Backbone:
C-alpha cells in the first residue's frame, strides 16, 4: 500500500505583548502610538474614492463578453476528444487589499471562468487523457504540466491502493492540471479540474460536485455571477454510458484598476 505525500506551507503566526508604564508621574504614550498606527493604516488602505468592484464589473460588460467568447473558442478543441455534456460561466470581481500586511497590485480585478464537461470514451484511460492534452499546443520547450501530472500520478498509481483513497487509484482521484502553456498574466489559461468515471458513484459525486462551479452570492466588494449546468447534471446526461467525464476550465482576466 503506497502513501501519497502532501505538501503544505506552514502558516505564519505573529504574537506580541505590551507592557504597562509605572510611576507616580508618567506620560502615557500608548494612545499616541495607536493614533499614528491608525493614520498609517489609513494611508496604506487608500482613500477609497475609486469605483467599487461592482461598478467596474458593470462598466466592462463588453470586455467580459469578449473574454467569454475567447474562452469558449479555446475550449472548443476538446470536442476533438469527446462530447460536450455541460457548461457554465462565472464572472467574478475582487477588491484588492492595501494594508500593512498585504498590498495587492490592483484596486479591482475581474475574471471570467468558462467551465465545460465532456464525455470521453475509449478502452484505455491514458489514451483518453492524452486526447484532451493533445488538443492544446505544447510549450515551446516541450514541457507539459498535464503530461507531468499524468506520469507522476496515473502512470505510477493506477490501480494501486493508497492510504489516501478507499480502493484502487482511479481517474477520479487525479489532481487538477494545466493544459497548454499559458497559466498566468493576461492570456487565457486552461485546466483540467477533474475526471469522473462513468457511471459515477457517490464518493466521486461528492468529490466533484463543484467541478462546473457553484452558485455564488456577491457583494459590492466581491460581485459574482454564475449561470449554467451543475456537474451532476453533466454526468447524468452521460449516465449509463461507459467512459469518463472530464471537466475543463478556461479563465482570463478582463478588467483591472488602476
Residues:
Amino acid at each position: 500500500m503506497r502513501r501519497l505525500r502532501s505538501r503544505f506551507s506552514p502558516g505564519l503566526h505573529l504574537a506580541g505583548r505590551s507592557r504597562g508604564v509605572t510611576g507616580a508621574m508618567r506620560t502615557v504614550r500608548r494612545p499616541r502610538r495607536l493614533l499614528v498606527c491608525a493614520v498609517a493604516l489609513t494611508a496604506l488602505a487608500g482613500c477609497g474614492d475609486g469605483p467599487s468592484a461592482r461598478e467596474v464589473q458593470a462598466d466592462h460588460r463588453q470586455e467580459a463578453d469578449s473574454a467569454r467568447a475567447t474562452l469558449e473558442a479555446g475550449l472548443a478543441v476538446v470536442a476533438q476528444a469527446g462530447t460536450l455534456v455541460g457548461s457554465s460561466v462565472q464572472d467574478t470581481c475582487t477588491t484588492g487589499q492595501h494594508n500593512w500586511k498585504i498590498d495587492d497590485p490592483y484596486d479591482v480585478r475581474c475574471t471570467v471562468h468558462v467551465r465545460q464537461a465532456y464525455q470521453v470514451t475509449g478502452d484505455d484511460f491514458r489514451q483518453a487523457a492524452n486526447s484532451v492534452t493533445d488538443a492544446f499546443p505544447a510549450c515551446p520547450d516541450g514541457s507539459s504540466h498535464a503530461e507531468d501530472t499524468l506520469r507522476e500520478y496515473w502512470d505510477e498509481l493506477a490501480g494501486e491502493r493508497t492510504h489516501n483513497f478507499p480502493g484502487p487509484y482511479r481517474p477520479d482521484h487525479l489532481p487538477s492540471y494545466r493544459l497548454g502553456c499559458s497559466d498566468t498574466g493576461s492570456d487565457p489559461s486552461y485546466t483540467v479540474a477533474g475526471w469522473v468515471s462513468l457511471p459515477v458513484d457517490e464518493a466521486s459525486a461528492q468529490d466533484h460536485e463543484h467541478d462546473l462551479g457553484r452558485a455564488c452570492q456577491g457583494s459590492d466588494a466581491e460581485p459574482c455571477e454564475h449561470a449554467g449546468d451543475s456537474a451532476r447534471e453533466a454526468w447524468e446526461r452521460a449516465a449509463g454510458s461507459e467512459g469518463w467525464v472530464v471537466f475543463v476550465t478556461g479563465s482570463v482576466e478582463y478588467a483591472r484598476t488602476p
